[in-house]
Amino acid sequence: MYNIKLLNRISSKGLENLEKRGYFVSQNADNPDAIILRSFSMHEMELPQSLKAIARAGAGVNNIPVDKCTEKGIVVFNTPGANANAVKELTILALLMSSRKVVESILWSKSLSGSSEDIKALIEKEKGKFVGPEIKGKKLGVIGLGAIGVMVANAANSLGMEVEGYDPYISIDSAWGLSRSVKKAESLKELLESSDYITLHVPYMESTRNMIDNKAFKLMKRGVRLLNFSREGLVDNAELKKSLNEGIVEIYATDFPDEELIRMDNVISFPHIGASTLESEENCAVMASNQIKCFLEWGTIKNSVNFPNCDLGNVFKHRITLSHLNIPNMVGQITGILACKGINIENMINKSRDKVAYTIIDTDTGIPDDILGKLENIDSMIRVRKLQ
């Protein structure tokens, strides 16, 4: 039916639905109709002519050449929210670890093994070295209120923290899910100046690259604890190191450390394990596979990063989908070609996103190949697909 190429290990639970429908799913799939991946970098990969869609089993898509895909009419999906709880839990763990010297105390306790001293007395004597502040009553600034940011904000609020969020582009769904106790920061400057703890939950793009820079560090309270479990490149590491050495940042916790940061005593570094739970991997795989299925079989687009959401349902006799530039008279040209051949349109939908648009058309008769050719030859047409 369709060939699906895997570029990483993907949870079998997510692939079951595709395999049951007769899809060939393999790392060795030739001429793939779609690709499912996690962290594999596609930037040096040649995109085959057969490729119609790419699904990232996760949120970030910086490992995918999105602009190049858009030019070729390849729809790129991600799975927002599927790993949100896993990342939230790790963020809350790091929040607590940044306050209480848990790791240091564990390592110190283990070092006492085989000691000739009275361990109980020694522990009682030295435990003062591991004193740290409670998070209750402290102020947490959450930068980015998407699926993960909202969960972190609500969890921290439940733990007794005063929470302030900043996101000028917050979605309606996120706003509905946010606790009423979470305050809205009017500006990033306001949040940076007033927070005892700061956590980042924004995507990496040109506008967010090194958003935590020298100017940002100068605004922060002395002794702030900074967390980044979102994306590499959001924090200017050179300026961060200066701020750590100067005591502006008390603790930095991240799963994007570099070689120098790993060696610093006031850095808590993890591998990139935010979504490394069985539940998260399964959720991402199921969501990615379902998006691929709905797109290939029905033309439905949901959670794409380069094309608009578009859904005309899954009941139709004959259907074509068209990816094209978002310019005047494209729909007019499309319907005109169909009308000239006496093809009646039963239903249609057109959606746009930035410079591109996407159209789904249902007809009561099949569309001959010569008509498909005329549609493909329209100036500014990117791709035409015949589904049935």
Strand-helix topology:
Blueprint: E1 3-6, H1 12-20, E2 24-26, E3 34-37, E4 53-56, H2 66-71, E5 75-77, H3 84-99, H4 102-111, H5 119-126, E6 139-143, H6 147-158, E7 162-166, H7 172-177, E8 183-184, H8 188-194, E9 197-200, H9 214-219, E10 224-228, H10 237-246, E11 249-254, H11 259-262, E12 267-269, H12 278-298, E13 318-325, H13 330-340, E14 345-353, E15 356-363, H14 369-376, E16 381-386
Parallel strand pairs: 1-2, 1-3, 3-4, 4-5, 6-7, 6-9, 7-8, 9-10, 10-11, 11-12
Antiparallel strand pairs: 13-15, 13-16, 14-15
Give a short overview.
With 388 residues, the protein is of the alpha/beta class. The protein has helices spanning 12-20, 66-71, 84-99, 102-111, 119-126, 147-158, 172-177, 188-194, 214-219, 237-246, 259-262, 278-298, 330-340, 369-376; strands spanning 3-6, 24-26, 34-37, 53-56, 75-77, 139-143, 162-166, 183-184, 197-200, 224-228, 249-254, 267-269, 318-325, 345-353, 356-363, 381-386. The strands form 3 sheets. A 7-stranded parallel sheet has the order 8-7-6-9-10-11-12, sandwiched between helices. It has a 5-stranded parallel sheet with strand order 2-1-3-4-5. A 4-stranded antiparallel sheet has the order 14-15-13-16, with helices on one face.
